[in-house]
Structures are given as C-alpha cells and as structure tokens.
Amino acid sequence: MSLCRVSATLLMLVAAIASRADDAFVLSDLCPPSFERLESGACHLVTLYDQYDSLQGHGVGGTQTALPARRDGFSARQIDLGRYLFFDPLLSADGTLSCASCHDPDKGFGDGLGHSIGIAGTETRRGAPTLWNSAFLRRLFWDGRASSLEEQAQGPLYAADEMGNTPQALLASLRGNAVYGDLFAQAFPESERIELPMVYTALAAFEASLISLNSRYDRYAHGYHDALNEEEVAGLNVFRSFVARCAECHTPPLFTNQQIAVIGSPEPEGLPMDVGAEESSGAAKLRGGFKVPTLRNIATTAPYMHSGRFETLRDAVTFYNGGRGHAVPPGVEMQLHWHIWDPKLADHELDLLVAFLGTLTDESFKPVIPQRVPSGLTPINHSKNNAGQFVAAQQAGDTP
Q1: What string of DSSP letters covers 283-328?
Q2: Nearest partner of 218 among 34, 32, 31, 30, judged by Cα
Q3: Which of 157, 280, 303, 329 could covalently link to 308 via disulfide, CB atoms 3.0 to 4.6 Å apart?
Q4: Are 65 and 56 in contact (CB under 8 A)?
C-alpha cells in the first residue's frame, strides 16, 4: 500500500475514533508546577532564581545568578492543548510519529540516538536536542537557525526527513477532527476555527512549561550546601576553573551561554563533516559551529554532541581535554572558539567533572503523558511503524 493510501486510511479511522470519544477530552485550567496563575489567566513562571539580579553571561557564572528572560504568559488551556498535540502522531504525514517520538520525556526529551529517525525510517542529519528549559532559549536547533519556539515547531513538522507533513495537510487533519475542534475552541475562544498559528502557539506553550531548575546543584546554589558531596563540589570547582573553563560557555544557571561555538567535534566514523551553522548563516567563520547546549539533565541524554559522537559523559569531557583542534579533519579550516585549548586535566579531574554533571538532573516537573490523544493514535511511538500497526489493529477490532 502506498504512503498516500496509508495516510488517507489513517485519517478516516482517526476521525471515526474521535467521533466516539469527543466528550472525553477537557483541557486543564491548572497551570503547571512552578507556574502562578495571574488574574488575566496567564501562567507565570516563578523560581528561586528570580530573587537574584546578577545577569548570566557576566563572569563564569556564580551560583546565585539570575536566569535570562523567559517565555511564559500562555494560558493553562493553551499549555494543555500543546501537550496533546505534542504526543499526537496525527501531526505527522503518515500518522507514525509524534513530537515525543524524538523528544521522549523518559529520555531527557531526546531519543537516545545520535541521529534521529523520521518518517519511513529516514535517518536525520543530527540528534534531537533536549527541550528542558526551552523557555529561556534565544536560539533553537543545533545550528541556531530559529529564534522562537513557534518558528522551531514548524521545522520538524514540515521537514521531509522528520514528520514530513505540509501546512495544508496538517490543517486539514486538525479541522477534520471533532475533538480538536472543541479543544482549540477551549484554548483560543476568540477564534472561530483552527488556524496554523494557534497550533504553533500551543506547541510553544507546552514546550515553555518544561522547567528543570530543582536539581541537587540548584539546592546547593540556593544555600543548602549538603546537597552536594565533597567529590561533586570538587567537580563544580573544576567546572568553573580558569583551567577547564567549562562555565564560560556552559554558564550557570542555565548552563549554556546560548552562543554558536566552533569546537571541532568529530563526526561518527564514516560520516561526512557537518558544517553546522555555516550552512544556515552563510558565514564561513561558523563552519563546524553548533549551539552550546544546556547541560541540564545531561546525564539522561546520551549520546552527546550534535551527531551523538560520544557515548558517555566521560568520552565527552575527554574530547575537550584532547588539545585544540585535535579532531579537525585534515585540510579543513575552522575558526575554533577561543575557549577551546589544551587544559591538560588529570584523569581524576575528568572524573570529578562527570560526577558534578550528574548533579544537574531534575525531572520532577516531567509532564503527564496522555494515555489517549484526540486522534486515537498511540501517544508515543517507539516502533517507528505505528501506521501499519494501527491499520492492522483496526482490522482486528483491537483499538478503543
């Protein structure tokens, strides 16, 4: 059966299921944890870092440093609608992938792969970056080509090697689903029907609610010094030292300075060089440049770098200790970031760094994964073959 026929079959089956369950979905009026509901109905993020007025980016990141500006102010219903959309494979061209297929909450909002897998088993060029603390980011994607969560959301939706959809088909699928018609009316009561900007707003609202700021490091930073053991404190000191210089790019408390950096990270064996931000910016000086990723929940998001080149955190920190430009392919010119040098850290100092990075894990505000989504499809798909399974299950009468 062709992909088009599978997609058409899916949409008909989806519509039938939705019509039987359209009274089962009601959006929440409760703001997510750490968000205060204002009189206007907007959800406003509140954190202990709000009490500090020193700015991130000045120095190497003291423990009591303010966070950068964040995106918030979405309504609780917009956030909850975004949650359903995020987990619903209806957003992909063939009903086999949801946003959560590559940004799995149980894998640090990544997918555990060096190169993510799109529709029809297509391998993408890069790995899926974490979405934790996306509300604070000014640049999105590994090459920094998007400047807002709404702009970022459109990339995977319409990329041929990711979700493979088109704006016209996505809008038709959502408008043809009675459940979504009701949910969008709840989240956007001023609008008469579903429009694409509402889809992007809802996805942005959900992603902006993914806050991770209560790790053991955070408790230490706010004054509870017993939150870290002696080894972890020593690792923090290495991290912030002018020898290792980790904090100059991975600046607390967000643990990224949000810049594009050329570090000379190698590709996996046998793969061509990824020029990174040079392609999206047109600037030769950014050849091999990628966005400095946050280190929040880094212990849960292996493998590491844009291509998953390093399997473990120990491998990743060892790369930085290898000397300036040691992994740049022969004959390739790169303008390496000036922070990349030859720190000559001892093995035990590398171990201390890894120990400290483990203290940045906080998944206490992990969102609730819906057991069902308005389309009737499986909320998270790890098999990458949900379309065939769904049709087979319908024929056997096994779906709800």
Answers
A1: -GGGTTEEE----TTGGGS-SBSTT--BSSHHHHHHHHTS-TTTTS
A2: 34
A3: 303
A4: yes
Task: Say if residue 330 is exposed, middle or buried (CB neighbours under 10 Å; 0-12, 13-18, 19+).
Answer: exposed
Are 61 and 252 in contact by the 8 Å Cβ rule? The answer is: yes
**CA-to-CA distance for 281 and 283, rounded, in angstroms?**
5
Buried b (16+ CB within 10 A) or exposed e, 272-299: eebbbbbebbeeeebbbbbbbbbbbbbb
Per-residue pLDDT of the chain (400 residues; tens, 9 = 90+): 444 444 444 444 444 444 444 458 999 999 999 999 999 999 999 999 999 987 655 556 678 889 999 999 999 999 999 999 999 999 999 999 999 999 999 999 999 999 999 999 999 999 999 999 999 999 999 999 999 999 999 999 999 999 999 999 999 999 999 999 999 999 999 999 999 999 999 999 999 999 999 999 999 999 999 999 999 999 999 999 999 999 999 999 999 999 999 999 999 998 999 999 999 999 999 999 999 999 999 999 999 999 999 999 999 999 999 999 999 999 999 999 988 889 999 999 999 999 999 999 999 999 999 999 999 999 875 443 443 333 333 333 333 3
Q: Which helix (H) or strand (E) holds 260?
A: strand 260-262
Amino acid type, 63: T
Distance CA 128, CA 103 (A): 7
Nearest to 188 by CA among 71, 88, 77, 28: 77
> Could you tell me which residues come within 8 angstroms of residue 235 by beta carbon, excluding any fewer than 6 positions away?
352, 353, 354, 355, 356, 357
Q: Which of 62, 29, 32 shows the shortest CA–CA distance to 46?
A: 32
CB atoms within 10 A of CB 123: 11
Beta strands at 43-45 and 260-262: parallel, antiparallel or unpaired: unpaired
